[in-house]
């Protein structure tokens, strides 16, 4: 079967069988089946989804990573797993690169990392712990880009992701009768203060950042009870790791002041930190050369800066000598990443696969 068509078939399977972080069981079994059919050696794990495959021989090791998990979100009124971040496409493109390269005479090892739980922000750490980048000199990733960042047919040699982190908070006040608000401590008032506070944090506009409420749970079915308790969450982003430190410090200080002002318990924890990108100039230039070779100078995009985060960058945080870059693929992607109706031109899959193959081959 033509490789382009096989890539599309792989994508279709993954798209129709999404699985959330740490539960990518069918996805892993499908990847095993593919490796066996291609006669490619691989290692899987007893206590973790995902796998690591290798082709080639030699002392040098170059790697590429594909994330394999889906989001959990509401789609047409039903909560379900959904590949709205494009990890189904990432897997298909990396598998395509493997197929383009597996029968070539290679003088180095090429390692294909199929990593779970990117959406949790820490799946990469599990692969690092299992030796995924041991001996690796260069690491590449790939991701589709929204249409407003990159049109179909163009490919960027590097994505400069921002830093991201979640905050999970709990308010402990006192319930009160709706007719006697003075007898309670209204969690809604505290939430309003939290919302207003995070929207009033300002830093230099020359570096992007944001902090916003993304989840609130409070109250019950009785409408005459003023709720004293609530839980909430924040999504916090910044373009650099240094600015993220400043954001966290400002929020910690502000929440302490809000708790004192309203006389309530206000507890919070920071979870699922994802670092900003540390892009290697050498890796970026290797990708740029590959893009030119495959689709021409006119379709070679510029490096992209985006406030989206990706745990791909933990690989370089944990192994600073690793030369890494994530390639961005234009696909006329509409609605936006993480939108339940995200859609794109699937002809981009073969373009991404061929660029990846060229990049890996020429390191």
TrEMBL record:
Ranges for domain Peptidase M20 dimerisation: 170-253
InterPro entries to which the protein is assigned, alphabetical: Amidohydrolase, Bact_exopeptidase_dim_dom, Peptidase_M20, Peptidase_M20_dimer
Gene3D superfamilies linked: 3.30.70.360, Zn peptidases (3.40.630.10)
Domain of life: Bacteria
Pfam family, one: Peptidase_M20
Matches recorded under NCBIfam families: amidohydrolases (TIGR01891)
Name the UniProt record assigns to this protein: Amidohydrolase
Taxonomic source organism: Metaplanococcus flavidus
């Amino acid at each position: 079967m033509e490789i382009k068509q096989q890539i599309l078939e792989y994508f279709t399977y993954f798209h129709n069988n999404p699985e959330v972080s740490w539960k990518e069981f069918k996805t892993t079994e499908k990847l095993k089946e593919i490796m066996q059919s291609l006669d490619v050696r691989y290692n899987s794990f007893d206590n973790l989804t995902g796998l690591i495959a290798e082709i080639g021989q030699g002392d040098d090791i170059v790697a590429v990573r594909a994330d394999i998990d889906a989001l959990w979100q509401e789609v047409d009124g039903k909560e379900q797993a959904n590949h709205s971040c494009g990890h189904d496409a990432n897997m298909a493109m990396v598998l395509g690169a493997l197929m383009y390269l597996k029968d070539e005479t290679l003088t180095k090892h090429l390692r294909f990392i199929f990593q779970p739980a990117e959406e949790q922000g820490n799946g990469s750490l599990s692969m690092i712990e299992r030796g995924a980048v041991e001996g690796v000199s260069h690491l590449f990733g790939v991701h589709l880009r929204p249409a407003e960042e990159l049109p179909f047919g163009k490919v960027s040699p590097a994505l400069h992701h921002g830093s991201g982190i979640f905050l999970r908070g709990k308010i402990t006040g006192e319930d009160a009768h709706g007719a006697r608000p003075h007898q309670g401590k209204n969690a809604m008032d505290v939430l309003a203060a939290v919302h207003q506070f995070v929207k009033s944090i300002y830093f230099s506009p020359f570096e992007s950042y944001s902090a916003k409420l993304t989840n609130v749970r409070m109250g019950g079915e009785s409408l005459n009870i003023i709720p004293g308790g609530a839980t909430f969450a924040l999504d916090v982003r910044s373009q650099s790791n240094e600015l993220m430190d400043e954001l966290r410090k400002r929020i910690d200080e502000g929440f302490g002041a809000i708790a004192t002002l309203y006389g309530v318990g206000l507890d919070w924890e920071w979870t699922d930190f994802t670092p900003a990108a540390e892009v290697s100039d050498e890796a970026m230039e290797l990708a740029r050369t590959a893009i030119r070779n495959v689709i021409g100078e006119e379709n070679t995009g510029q490096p992209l800066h985006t406030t989206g985060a990706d745990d791909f960058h933990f690989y370089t945080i944990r192994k600073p000598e690793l030369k890494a870059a994530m390639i961005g693929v234009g696909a006329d992607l509409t609605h936006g990443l993480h939108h339940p109706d995200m859609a794109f031109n699937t002809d981009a899959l073969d373009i991404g696969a061929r660029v990846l193959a060229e990049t890996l081959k020429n390191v």
